[in-house]
Design goal:
This protein is an all-alpha fold. Helix content is 68%, strand content 1%. The protein has a two-stranded parallel ribbon with strand order 1-2. Helix 2 packs across helix 4, helix 5 packs parallel to helix 7 and helix 9 packs antiparallel against helix 10.
């Protein structure tokens, strides 16, 4: 007996106290679930409008405390089928009252996943609060990254459409009217005029160019300079958003990021090559020798 007493140290005693405290908190959770069950039963029997009065006079609870206890019962009743935590191997049965309250902020499915991935029973209140905070932050960052990925996808599609439209415009600029394809080189002015006069009335003898109707407008230059500035600003903003999305995508799926980066590079190279000489040079008229 004396040997056993001699082996007891403050460290051993502290461990025993902490174990008893933890067991007490687990018992408190099981008891809270049982109380919540009975409160829910009582609420269904008490007359409407008298619930708060009954709580205060009968069990000295506030409505807030009662709602919390009933919520514990609703969320955790399956983990305490007989009201005892010691007979159940569910992860919830190993939680303390405080831990169970903190986890009420998670949907049931996410709560089970969180319990499976973390040793919640071994966490302090502060550690659990931090773990939940980190989880929420990671969830928000993932949602933001997915949103930016979708924005990147839409922006790439928009740029592809723009390039396609530019190519169509370029092709139109290089096409000559059919009635000018076979003009003889030595045709007289009168003959040439006659040939042109046989063209459809609605046709224009000039090669198609951009904005023919506004070229004679004295204010056209300023208007199109402003439009150029606006477009450049839009492209700059879109490029910044694109690179931001690629950066975030790197942390989610490096392979997919590289795929999108190559698509972007190809698109930008096409744009750079197209804009080197714009408008494209007018194709000379084809003449018959």
């Amino acid at each position: 007996m004396n040997d056993l007493a001699a082996e007891r140290t403050p460290l051993v005693i502290a461990a025993e106290i902490n174990m008893i405290t933890h067991q007490t908190k687990k018992i408190l959770l099981a008891s809270a679930v049982e109380i919540g069950c009975r409160l829910k039963e009582a609420k269904s029997l008490v007359k409407h409008g008298e619930w708060g009065k009954w709580l205060e006079e009968s069990v000295s609870y506030t409505q807030r405390t009662a709602e919390r206890l009933m919520r514990l019962y609703e969320e955790y009743e399956s983990s305490f089928p007989d009201g005892q935590s010691s007979s159940n191997s569910s992860p919830v049965s190993n939680l303390t009252y405080t831990q169970a309250l903190l986890l009420l902020g998670l949907p049931a499915e996410e709560r089970e996943e969180f319990l499976a991935q973390n040793d919640v029973a071994g966490m302090t209140k502060q550690e659990l609060q931090q773990a939940l905070k980190d989880r929420d932050q990671a969830k928000q960052e993932k949602a933001q990254a997915l949103q930016e990925k979708e924005v990147l996808k839409q922006e790439l599609e928009r740029i592809h459409r723009t390039i396609s439209e530019l190519k169509k415009e370029q092709a139109k600029a290089l096409v000559q009217p059919d009635y000018l394809q076979n003009v003889p080189r030595d045709a007289s002015a009168a003959g040439a005029s006659s040939s042109v006069s046989n063209a459809p009335p609605s046709s224009n003898t000039s090669l198609p160019t951009h904005n023919l109707q506004t070229e004679i407008d004295p204010g056209a230059a300023a208007k199109y300079v402003e439009r150029c500035n606006t477009c450049c600003k839009t492209i700059s903003t879109a490029f910044f958003e694109l690179t931001t999305a690629l950066t975030n995508l790197t942390h989610l799926d490096a392979k997919l990021k590289e795929e999108k980066r190559k698509e972007t590079q190809k698109l930008l190279e096409t744009i750079a090559e197209t804009i080197k000489e714009w408008p494209p040079p007018k194709k000379p008229l084809k003449v018959i020798h």
